[in-house]
Amino acid sequence: MQLCYGPMACLTLFLLLTATGTGADKVHNCCTEVSRQKITVPIIGARMQKKNLPCVKAVIFETEDGEICSHWKETWVRHTFIQLEMARRSLNTQNTTTTTST
């Protein structure tokens, strides 16, 4: 069975197969770059993102304006992340205590 019937047909087939087979047009719902700048808007929450290319290792801060990808090695990022985790754990402990004592 012959796939191409001339040079133009072969070129067209090649272009169609390679254009649809690449991951270049995939949408990645992660941080692919980070900021070192301190966040000035109120922070609602945070989560860690592991490196899994094209995603980079980052702390993702959730703010009232949306999500901000921050560099995980920045001192202020680590400090803020730890504060948020401690507050979250404290709130979970209070909720558990309230639920069990009622």
TrEMBL record:
Protein name per the record: Chemokine interleukin-8-like domain-containing protein
Signal peptide (residue range): 1-24
Higher taxonomy: Eukaryota, Metazoa, Chordata, Craniata, Vertebrata
Originating organism: Oncorhynchus tshawytscha
Presence of the UniProt keyword Signal in the record: yes
Listed GO MF terms: chemokine activity
GO biological process, any: immune response
Keyword field: Cytokine, Signal
One Pfam family this sequence matches: IL8
